[in-house]
Amino acid sequence: MWPLLRDLNSHLIQKIGFDWSEKLKEGIPLKIRMDLLSSDIEHTVIETDSYESLSLLYYFTEHFSERIRNNNERKILRYLIGSRITIPALVDRRSFQAAKERVKT
Questions:
Q1: Which of 69, 60, 70 is nearest to 91 (CA)?
Q2: How far apart, in Å, are the Cα atoms of 38 and each of 20, 35, 92?
Q3: Same domain as 40, residue 23
């Protein structure tokens, strides 16, 4: 999750410094997406797809492209146009739902 949190909270570089994630202290608010992928989905490969673009599309950051690539046996996407691949969940559904409930209180 850190790659996503770092991307979503890059504004903290100006406030705390480049290594803000190492200097993070209690009470500093972080931006957290509430629409993260919490179950595997199928994606039909199109000509312009890359593992990086799929990571950006489904996870809102390119940092998880290897997660998608490894989940799909590192197959080359240009040979899979029209085929379906699996985009794995980024977070466990139950854990994420419980975390959402804690944020509401």
A1: 60
A2: 27, 8, 6
A3: no
Write down the residue that tokens 């996407």 correspond to: 77
Tell me the C-alpha distance between 55 and 6, whole Å: 15
Does residue 96 share a domain with residue 47? yes
The predicted model scores a pTM of 0.76
- Spans in the chain with pLDDT lower than 70: 1, 100, 103, 105
CA angle 84, 92, 20 (to 5 degrees): 105
In the prediction, which pLDDT does 36 show? 83
Distance from C-alpha of 26 to C-alpha of 10, rounded to nearest angstrom: 18
Domain that holds residue 51: 35-105
Residues 50 and 96 in one domain: yes
Per the structure, the count of domains in the chain is 2
**pLDDT at site 103:** 67
Looking at residue 66, its pLDDT comes to: 97
Query: Cα–Cα distance between 15 and 58 in angstroms, integer?
Result: 29
